[in-house]
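AraC-type DNA-binding protein (Methylobacterium phyllostachyos), 304 aa
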Amino acid sequence: MAEFRGRSHVQHLGNAILCRAGASGLRFTRDRALVARMGVDHILAHVRLSGRSRVEAGGAAQDCGPGDICLLDLSRPLAAQSTDYQALTVVLPRGLFGADQAMLDALHGQVIRGASPFGRMLNDHLRALDAHAPGFSERESGAAARATAVLLGAAVSGLPAAERNAQAPDGAPLLLALRRFIEAELASPDLNAETLGRQFGISRSALYRLFVPLGGVAGYIRQRRLARAYRDLAAGDGRGARISEVAYRWGFESPAHFAQAFRFAYGHAPRDVRAQGPAEAAPGRSDRIEAWGDFYDWVLKLAA
């Protein structure tokens, strides 16, 4: 196997992160377990300066070449392989997209072609951001990040339907409010379709239609609870809370039910994650990822 080479320069813009990176050819998978372990749900835009990649996300595969801009939702799984490359990447918190947050469900895996007029303009914007960001004041950094979010949101909403891997479901603003409520109430044993219907004044049938792209109401709630449980187990050193405590904390009816759902979602038992500890918990996690701890800490602390 050829030796891997890579180098990156990362700039923190207060409410965004900008990274210029280059590396030899690689292949990686960001599976559901790693998504849960890292706890990052931000939006990433990646513009190729050189090299080619193939990205599998949102149930489809897209090729990305020089000048193309690949958009990814870091709360969802993906896989990619790439030749040797140079690239610019910007990471933005979801809240920075404002009214365009309703479009984020359709964003994952989209590619804005660099040859299109809007793609050329986005290329110019991201390259200028990389060139001038080191001299920005805090206020200027925030303004530049907000402008980048506006441009990316407009790019996604303007893509022809035939070029989209997924459509934002009807009622996307309501769905966004529902998901925020679910996230805040995950530990509540009363969180279910009935509670959501009463809280938002929506019928059961309408609620179910909204959540079809996300695996259904109960499936989505279970997925988010499992992700929280995974993070709790992986953050410990094997001497923390009992698995049963984690199960009940996140609304599972019994440790056995929790273990069954956990194994189905992640391919291994909760005790395996807790026994491995924080440095090894995510499958496929390498020393190279561990060296990026500060980077992920920056991402998690981004605020709109």
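The chain has two domains: 6-167, 172-276. The longest strand covers residues 43-50. ok done for today
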